[in-house]
Write a structure and sequence with these properties.
Low-confidence stretches: 155-176
Organism: marine sediment metagenome
CATH superfamily: Aldolase class I
InterPro entries: Aldolase_TIM (IPR013785), MoaA_NifB_PqqE_Fe-S-bd_CS (IPR000385), rSAM (IPR007197), rSAM_sf (IPR058240)
Radius of gyration: 16 Å
Mean pLDDT: 73
Keywords: 4Fe-4S, Iron, Iron-sulfur, Metal-binding, S-adenosyl-L-methionine
Cofactor: [4Fe-4S] cluster
Largest sheet: 7 strands, mixed
Protein name: Radical SAM core domain-containing protein
Helix content: 25-40%
Structural class: alpha/beta
Shape: globular
Strand order of the largest sheet: 1-2-3-4-5-7-6
Number of strands: 7
CATH topology: TIM Barrel
């Protein structure tokens, strides 16, 4: 049996997505150093870091990744993000801290903006998974995946209120 943990780092977000599992739900605790230390000491095999938007708390995010890696260097840590604020500095910092991969939910069709984000992550050799929210983007995402040597597979992320399992897809960019 796998030893996994899902950490909600923050309930703050820079978007208001209709499909969000956190929509209209607020967490009433602060993600403290004591919470981070306790989670790190549990030596989970895999940790999913989500929110809200975890990149809105970059310093706390990096500290948490470093703390977990200190206690358990083999832990796999994945960031769930909308990627809106992601830049090269953040991608490099997260990779250096020990981030294993990025699960990214783009909100628009692929374009040069997203290509830039993908390049930041790719240069840092962080594996990427893209969650497609809108069936109207299928053709664009398929072409984007083909152009960037990515694989597409169906992916279930949980029971969000407005999304059916058949509407969830994952693209893996196998860059490492």
């Amino acid at each position: 049996m796998r030893n996994n943990c899902r950490v909600v780092l923050t309930d703050r977000c820079n978007l208001d997505c209709s499909f969000c599992c956190m929509k209209d739900k607020r967490i009433y605790y602060s993600f403290t150093n004591q919470t981070a230390l306790w989670i790190a000491q549990q030596r989970y095999d895999e940790i999913a870091i989500t929110g809200g938007e975890p990149l809105m708390e970059l310093e706390k995010l990096v500290q948490f990744i470093c703390l977990v890696k200190y206690f358990n260097p083999d832990a796999k840590m994945y960031l769930y993000t909308n990627g809106m604020s992601l830049n090269y500095y953040e991608a490099f910092t997260l990779k250096t801290a020990g981030l294993t991969g990025v699960n990214w939910s783009p909100k628009e069709k692929p374009n040069s903006y997203y290509q830039e984000k993908m390049t930041f992550i790719h240069v840092c050799l962080i594996p990427i998974r893209i969650l497609i929210q809108d069936r109207l983007m299928d053709d664009d995402i398929l072409q984007f995946a083909l152009n960037n040597n990515m694989q597409i597979r169906q992916w279930t992320i949980g029971d969000c209120d407005d999304m059916k399992p058949e509407d969830r897809f994952r693209i893996d960019w196998s860059n490492v």
